[in-house]
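Researcher: I'm preparing a figure for a lab meeting and need a structural model of a single chain. I don't have an experimental structure, so a prediction will have to do for now. The sequence is pasted below. Please return the structure as tokens so I can convert it later.
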Amino acid sequence: MGQNKEVMVEAEAMEDPTKLKEEGNAAFKVGKYDEALVLYTKAIALTDKESDKSTYLKNRAAVHLKTEDYERAVQDCTTALEISQNDPKALYRRCQAYEALDKVEQAYSDAKAVHHCDPKNKAVEPFLLRLHAKVQAKINEMSTTANKVTKMFELVFNVKEDLDKREKAADNMIVLAKERVGAELLFKEGVVLKIVRLMKLEKNPKIRLSLVRVFGDLGKNDMDRAKSIVREAGVPFFLDALNTADEESVNAVSYVIQCLLDSISQVDLINRWQEKLKNNKNNRMNVTERKQKRADEVRREEILKENSRELDSIMSVICFNTTSRTLTALAREALINMIMKNCKWDQLNWAEKMLTTDAYQRLMEVASELNLPEFKYESAMDITDSTKTIVGVTFGFLYEQMYDDRRREALISEVGKFTQSKLMDPGMESKVRIVVAITTLLTNAPELGNSQLKEGLLEMMLVMARSDEYIQQLVASEAIIAAASKKKDVTAIVNQGLDILKTLYKSNNDHIKVRALVGLCKLGASGGSDAALRPFADGSSSKLAEACRRFLINPEKDSDLRRWAAEGLSFLTLDAEVKEKLVEDEPAMRALIELGKTGAQNVMYGVLATLVNITNSYDKQEINPEMLELAKFAKHHIPEEHELDDEDFADKRIWSIAQMGVTSALVSLSKTESLNMRELIARVLNAVCKHSELRGLVVQQGGSKSLIPLALEGTDKGTRCAASALARIGITQDPAIAFPGQRSCDVVRPIALLLDPDCEGLENFESLMALGNLASLNESTRKRILKDTNCIQAIENFMFEEHKLIRRAAVQCWTNLCVSDVQVARCEGDNDKVKYCVLLCGDDVDPLVIKAASGALAMLTSASNKVCKKIFDSKQWNDCLLNLLASMDVEICFRGCVIVQNMVASSKDTAQQVLETQIMEVLQALVLKANLDTGSSHPNPTLVKVKSVCEKTLEEAHKLNIVKTQQEAVLDEEEKEDDIEPWLRAPAAGNAGLPSLKEGDY
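Model: Understood. Here is the structure written out token by token.
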């Protein structure tokens, strides 16, 4: 009963807001900001007293300032000021936050208010002076910028002006729009309407492109400006700018539209939490974070509701115009890509919103288009070979966003309306179009495509394949190939359609023939990589591969035929003999790589699947030996691996294709939005990067740049493979060359993904090695690693790892970070980081760990007197330092000497504590040892440095009067003999038991 009473009392105390505030204050003082944040937030939630709430809000704002969350600091101070107007502390902290956010006018206003409320406050005076200067500088800058704006307007909007001058002025306007002051002035001067009017007359493509880009920079990250741009310019304006065959212009306009959408919807409110969760390997948040996330979600819901008019109008125009007959093919593809980008349920949720429109039927219309001259009609849309692949992938994305059965049924119903309307039409054109549309779905969104395979549709495909009409044969053969994905479909087609495919293969038309060939290849490969399963007779795969090869290498064949040939090989290369022969056939292999270099969406699957098969980078099912024996006993089929699929053969194939330039093809294909295709690219690149000698080729051909986005967005397996490839590059390649400029910072997060305990030990090791190399590159990269809390915590956790190599890599990585002031500050905090580093110096197992840990201590002690004192936190500090000084490895010995020197130089108390131990004798012994070595024929240069450091340490100790020369000791002894009786004599304090030093032996 007594114990329960204590628990109740403790619980009541924890619910007391004042108690929570005091505990928050204590946590804040020792730098435990996360803990302080939780405590202050609880106190705010529990208190009903307005004055107390104001205090707690100000305290929480102080935490936000420390954690650099300046927006939230402003919010808390503003709320506190609503309770208590003109509160100096709230104004002062809001002033600090505003200044950090570069909102100098607001900061200056708050600083003046603090001075007015509390004239004796000396802390605000430096702020007033500094902010006054900043405000004055901004006024001057605006005055200068205003002159620039005026000159630009005179040049850009005067069509009679010199063309070169106008082009330069338009480019300068983009630069100005990127700057905050410049953007404000451009907007104030009515640049939006001026650009809209000029674009109606302007013919110069370069000026048109620059003007559109100005809109992107004006609206980026500014909701009010973005809304004004959409209202003043109108969505049709951007559609008109998008409608061009110039790829650069299409990309630029697409980017501008997306910038406006992101700004109006404030998507960053959600993205930053997704980023936080992605970086948090436990995928968890504390109570405070959950509340803040919910507050952001509520705020964003309000924004979406408030801005629904603009957002819905943009969506409607984009969806409606996907079927516009006046649009160029590139513009159409750009609109479809925008639908895919904004369909996610937790962002703009276009996937669900489109259910209330006819958008899905319009996308199905695009999916049903045939890009064949023989099938062109008056109302045909302009499309490319990649358009149907893009719309198919988009359907896959849309289907994934329907996160429950009800929504998926609604999507299937919308697609079914299009299917039903075409089937009801008796005309052959409608039947052809529905087969083409379903083929597009089956290829890229198989679940959605299978939902449309109603009774009789498969039979209709087979009937069309038997017809004598070219178009019917063409689309039916493609549909059969796409439908033969599931085992039951393969069986049905083998039974009914095999003879049809064989007949079609005899066609004189190459387009029919190659499609029938792919169908036969797909059916022939239904056994997968199992060497024991061969659906067709032995040798059939090789014959089919030879037929594909003829189409692939023939320069007279068009790209469509080569694309289908590659797809045929993607099925056949599951056979080890076929993949081995293909790699040995250099012309065929180079033709396949050249096909990949086109970057076309429709060649992607064939090329990538073939490369994955060749490199054996697909997942292999591990067979449990016990289950294997059980399968044998039950007489079940057991998969067999071909001898040509051994690792040695696979490695040889990887070397061959890498030398032929496969990375260039993969880089060209990596721009795809398809997560599955991105995974295949990452698999192949990781297989190449497994070989250290090939990593330089990957970097030369742009692979390291492409791997970063592949590691950040994709399937779990895809991101992991890409991260592994980046880590491998980071181990053996010079990071300054492999990841130049900002890329060295961008690559940190992808590589850090492999620090997850769920990853394999080899992946952990490679990640630590790569991060260690990056940490040696520059301060910005080190700060990026240290800023990622999960990353640095994982590195420190691996320093306790039992595995020798992983532990060593973690310690070496941590050591390289010690160059940074941020790392020094972390070690100065209330933690055991220095203590553990000292203990590592006594490691009896791994001398390389000792070398790294001693190097870390040498750097930390040279940068911080506080770290020098923290060394004494370890009870074994003396033994560990002696272990360094007595090491046979002179590099370790030198590091130990530097540590001692830094400690002696830090303060007299520290020096005395160090030198009253055996360390003094060891330093003298090292000097003697170095003197002896100097006389040898080949003196050790490191020992020379050891001697120099030891002498400087002893000199410093002498200056501090901790040690004495022999002459000084003799004089002291004589004085003592005169002053005291012999039985009272004792060694000088701080020099007990130490030998006397001779002049010059320091």
